[in-house]
Queue: 4 jobs
Job 1
Amino acid sequence: FASGASIAVAFDSFTRFLMAGFNPVVFFDQDSQRLLSGNLNKDDVAIGISLTGETSSVVNCMKNAKKNHAKTICLTSSYNSAITEYADIKLFTIPIKSKYQKTDMHSRMAQIAMMDCIFIKLAFGFCFTITLSGLSKMALQPNESTAYIRGVYS
């Protein structure tokens, strides 16, 4: 589930999982997301992506999914945000502000990298450290049901 700029992250992940033979579902409108969240069950996994963790439509979808006993994962930059209340697994990216960008593009890239790690783990059965030469280094550090991804920029 995603809204606004986070939809790009959700759609990118949707495409990867679809090409690997999984059966992902992504909707761009909030009404369809809400309907989907109400129809999930214990065999489903719901991923909520929200930079602030406070987007009401995404939080409500995660709440519905959790109520229906789906496994829930959130991806956000805010540790104590509303979305974390409904997530079985909490994934955090560290927000990086830049005076040259109006949007938090670095955090979006970190979110895509985190979703790529989930994809690699599910599709190939392992996780690793990602290095983008010259641009950034990103390290995945698991901590029980919480993981962090940090971008280091030169």
Note: DSSP finds four helices and six strands in the chain.
Job 2
Amino acid sequence: ISWTQNNWIRASDQPHLHGTAYARSLTTTTTQHTNLLRTPLLNIEADSVLEFYARTSAANYDQRLQIRYSVDGSNWTAIGDEISLTPYVTWAAYEVDLSSLAGARSEYYLAFDAYTTGSGGFVWIDYVRGPEIVPLPPHLYPLLMVLYLSLLHHC
């Protein structure tokens, strides 16, 4: 059970807000909808929110974050407003209300979609808090371990 990233890396070369590292991505105009930092499957409830801190290296207001959700981890839909990051700001707090997802279905993947509407820049995310991770059924752990060991053997 882990986060999945496209063009995101774990980094610690800049001051971070919490822990020992943060997530960082370089944005371009072609990264929208493809530059996703995805969560494991989460249990969304009526009072669920996604809280995080973000910042950018850019000197403009072009850097964007959009929170997206998916039932299958492949097809993504925006939730909440697009977030325009303030230039050169220190860490700023953000909160996205997830309550509209609660209902008959409660398990979703969430993703941070980082992109730019102009010139590129780095986007950093740190101290993410939100819904609980859905635990995997115990019968899947041996299968995942075999898959993991197989991948290690072929790398």
Note: Residues 141-154 form the longest helix (14 residues).
Job 3
Amino acid sequence: RLLLGKAGVVAAFGFVLGTLLGVVGVAVGVPALGEYGDFSAGDTVRSVLAIGLYGGMISLVALGVGTFTRSSAATVSILFLVLLVASTLLGGLGEALGWDWLITISNYFPNVAGQTFITGADQPYSPVVGLLTLIGWAAAALLAGAAALKTRDA
């Protein structure tokens, strides 16, 4: 119950912060883009809310990893590797070696899933699959954290 309560607070905070950052990004970005910054209100609202949802999901991943490792340094390192390094490294290696299966794996990391979900792009998969992938990463991290919490701190 403790982890579930924390997850609710962390997800809500991540969503609100992500949404606010999305609003700030739009407010700064649209004027900077000039004539290329013409977006419909519906697309803008969808993107801002998607950024908020991404913030909430990644916050849950961070909570799960942090609960599992019980180390802030390890949590930051793992998140850095998972969110920024691993998909790029695996995708580049897959392209260099001609291993399509490695490219496919790299497409299911949370940063690629989030980008697909936020932008509404249909490559490498639909935004719905991107959201479901993010939910899967959050659930896996929280389950790992819950299992570690139950066995270690019971």
Note: The mean pLDDT is 93.
Job 4
Amino acid sequence: LAVFRHGEAPVREFYSVKRLVLIENKANYYSRIKEKRPDEAIVFAGGHFSPVRKQLYECMREGFHGEIYLSSDIDLGGFLMFARLKEEVFPNLKPYHMSLDIYEKYLKYARSVDEAYLDKIEKARDREDLAIFHDVMDAILKHKKALEQEVMIIK
């Protein structure tokens, strides 16, 4: 289990951490654990979660009273992953490095998207559970580009 590798806190100390950061991308996970603070646990999330991973997250949630974050791509898939994780498992979930500031910082490395993708963003823009990302969605619509999180460690 990735959460307890690479010098992470042993299981009995997990609940003493104040911050849990779920990271969708494996390269970003490996980069981020090098900068881990003593009061946080870093977990490789690996994309949209399966029923088994959901059970793991639910076990992690029980008794954990710290802040919980998700780092994912700044694109529709990342937004939907965040919304599902927030609705089904972690109601207090916050985005990590998924803000408009981060998008603008790395915009020159973003990938171009087609009109069909922009239509999907436009429809998602109306979802209340994605309101936290409306400013980023507006930027994606404006620039016609989405951002993979890998660029944050490569560039």
Note: The helical segments are 26-33, 51-61, 76-88, 100-105, 115-124, 134-143, 151-154.
